Amino acid sequence: MEEERNSILLFDGVCNLCNGTVNLLLDLDKKRVLKYASLQSEFAKNLILEHHLEEETRGVDSILFWDGTRIHSKSEAVLKIASRLGGIWKISLLGTLLPKWIRNQIYDLIAKNRYRWFGKREACRMPTPELRDRILG
């Protein structure tokens, strides 16, 4: 599916919460539909420039989701990522019943405190040989 090949999660490569989430998703994504790139990578920077996404991504430094057509941020990105996993994870679409401003307030609270609550790495993760086709740039 074209949609699946273009499912790219852009994450804060030095954030322990973001890295933990990527590790969890790597295990849960049995169909291998998601690709990953740290926001600090050349790949992510080039994707944002190539598709003229500077305005939509300004100020977002935790998680973004590129679906091949558009970029999603904050709670919308989280819901899109979960729904891409399929199966039981499609239940995450119930989150859309909450108004976006409420979902984003919760997201912003976690994003603002993620380093304090979960810590931070000195450098972005390096993909293992087994993960090179899934972790970009």
Automatic annotation (TrEMBL):
<protein>
    <submittedName>
        <fullName>DUF393 domain-containing protein</fullName>
    </submittedName>
</protein>
<dbReference type="InterPro" id="IPR052927">
    <property type="entry name" value="DCC_oxidoreductase"/>
</dbReference>
<dbReference type="InterPro" id="IPR007263">
    <property type="entry name" value="DCC1-like"/>
</dbReference>
<dbReference type="GO" id="GO:0015035">
    <property type="term" value="F:protein-disulfide reductase activity"/>
</dbReference>
<dbReference type="Pfam" id="PF04134">
    <property type="entry name" value="DCC1-like"/>
</dbReference>
